[in-house]
């Protein structure tokens, strides 16, 4: 995506007594250390522990951490927090952790104070990128485009904006005799939307700044400054979009799901016990064993099969399902059922190789610690809501439902949604926009 760029005050590089970054030589001399920093305080007045609340199957902070890590632009990616649970999630998503001091953990503490503390404790950092945890539709290409303005164009600070077409009017306080007036509109000459460029507004996704700017000017926007424009569909701010289900739908459509292309998923491995079933075996009075399978889940499996995604069901030597039960499950679902050992990856590597697939083509649904390696390796992976934390942290998607009660159906719908999204993007890429 190309970004519209406009030079703001300070473009001559002389403001704040700063030397433009370009003159500090990116091509020669000491290599600049570029860090990403996500601020994630434990306290939240609106939603408790909002930064790690699940959004579309991923902790809120996980969305921006995935984009930052996958961009491969940063020498280090950090989360600044004062909370143990946020620290665990941050490390699980590949970040280092800065335990902020109590002085910058108060309700009244500013983001700048926390950033300054971080940079004092990490003097090797030359450029800081403050990424907001509440912007889950951030993609690596946004960060890349913005950073190039520093490394190639010599800007000291970059911030993200979105174009809004909204007419603004002066607020009139209750009881006042004052009349309102327009800020950006001439009512007799009201423009059509297509005839008006709109206005640029900060969307809060990210702020790049040089070390010199933060230390000397004590701000994140100054010196030689410009902006990076993001399209509206990527400008989701959870601080504003407080309707969580609405935000989830936006993220499912426009969020960044990783390097692997979802449309390539050809095979799903799914555990029977704990995913397709509740993980329980029922015994009748005569000693006959039974399991319960939810029809929503079997419908989800059929949806995948119809979309040419093969489903292989797994039973484990750690939690065995009898051969007779496995055969009945196979008949019911039309899926191959195979048994795996303590490390499922050992057996599944062979299955993937026989089909001449890469692991990016594979989805995996597990529910316990033995599934961690497969959850990490698969292109798409999921666990039910009631899985242990170790499995949840390894999975790329956490279902709202628990095992045996619709979780498989939910993951199936997620796979199909991402496939549809990727196919739509491929069609968009084929459009000849010059001759459209």
TrEMBL record:
Which Enzyme Commission numbers does its entry carry?
Answer: 2.7.7.43
User: What are the protein's GO molecular function terms?
Assistant: N-acylneuraminate cytidylyltransferase activity
Q: Superkingdom of the source?
A: Eukaryota
Q: Which pathway does the UniProt entry assign to this protein?
A: Amino-sugar metabolism; N-acetylneuraminate metabolism
Q: Name one Pfam family in it.
A: CTP_transf_3
List the PANTHER family: HAD SUPERFAMILY MEMBERS CMAS AND KDSC, N-ACYLNEURAMINATE CYTIDYLYLTRANSFERASE
Q: Write down what this protein is called.
A: N-acylneuraminate cytidylyltransferase
């Amino acid at each position: 995506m190309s970004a519209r760029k406009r030079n703001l005050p300070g473009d001559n590089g002389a403001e704040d007594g700063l030397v433009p970054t370009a003159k500090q030589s990116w091509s020669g001399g000491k290599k600049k250390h570029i860090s990403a920093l996500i601020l994630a305080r434990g306290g939240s007045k609106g939603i408790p522990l909002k930064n790690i609340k699940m959004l579309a199957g991923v902790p809120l902070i996980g969305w921006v951490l995935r984009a930052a890590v996958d961009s491969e632009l940063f020498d280090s990616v950090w989360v600044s927090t004062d909370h143990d649970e946020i620290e665990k999630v941050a490390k699980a998503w590949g970040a280092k952790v800065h335990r902020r001091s109590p002085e910058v953990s108060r309700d009244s503490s500013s983001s700048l104070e926390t950033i300054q503390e971080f940079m004092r404790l990490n003097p090797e950092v030359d450029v800081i990128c403050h990424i907001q945890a509440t912007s889950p539709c951030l993609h690596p290409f946004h960060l890349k485009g913005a950073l190039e303005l520093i490394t190639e164009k010599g800007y000291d600070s970059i911030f993200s904006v979105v174009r809004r077409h909204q007419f603004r009017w002066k607020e009139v306080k209750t009881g006042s005799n004052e009349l309102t007036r327009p800020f950006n509109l001439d009512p007799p000459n009201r423009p059509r939307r297509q005839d008006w460029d709109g206005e640029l507004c900060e969307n809060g996704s990210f702020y790049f700044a040089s070390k010199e700017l933060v230390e000397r000017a004590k701000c994140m926007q100054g010196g030689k400054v410009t902006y990076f424009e993001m399209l509206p569909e990527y400008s989701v701010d959870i601080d504003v979009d407080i309707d969580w289900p609405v935000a989830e739908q936006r993220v499912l459509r426009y969020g960044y799901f990783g390097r692997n292309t979802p449309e390539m998923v050809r095979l799903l491995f799914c555990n029977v016990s704990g995913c397709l079933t509740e993980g329980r075996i029922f015994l009748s009075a005569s000693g006959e064993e039974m399991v319960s399978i939810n029809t929503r889940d079997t419908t989800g499996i059929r949806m995948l099969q119809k979309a040419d995604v093969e489903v292989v069901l797994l039973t484990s030597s750690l939690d065995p399902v009898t051969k007779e039960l496995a055969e009945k499950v196979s008949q019911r679902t039309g899926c191959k059922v195979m048994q795996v050992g303590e490390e499922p990856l050992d057996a599944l590597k062979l299955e993937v190789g026989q089909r001449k697939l890469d692991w990016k083509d594979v989805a995996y649904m597990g529910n316990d610690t033995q599934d961690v390696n497969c959850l990490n390796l698969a292109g798409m992976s999921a666990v039910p809501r009631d899985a242990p934390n170790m499995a949840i942290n390894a999975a790329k998607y956490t279902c709202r439902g628990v095992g045996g009660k619709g979780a498989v159906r939910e993951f199936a719908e997620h796979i199909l949604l991402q496939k549809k999204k990727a196919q739509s993007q491929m069609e968009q890429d084929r459009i000849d926009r010059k001759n459209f």
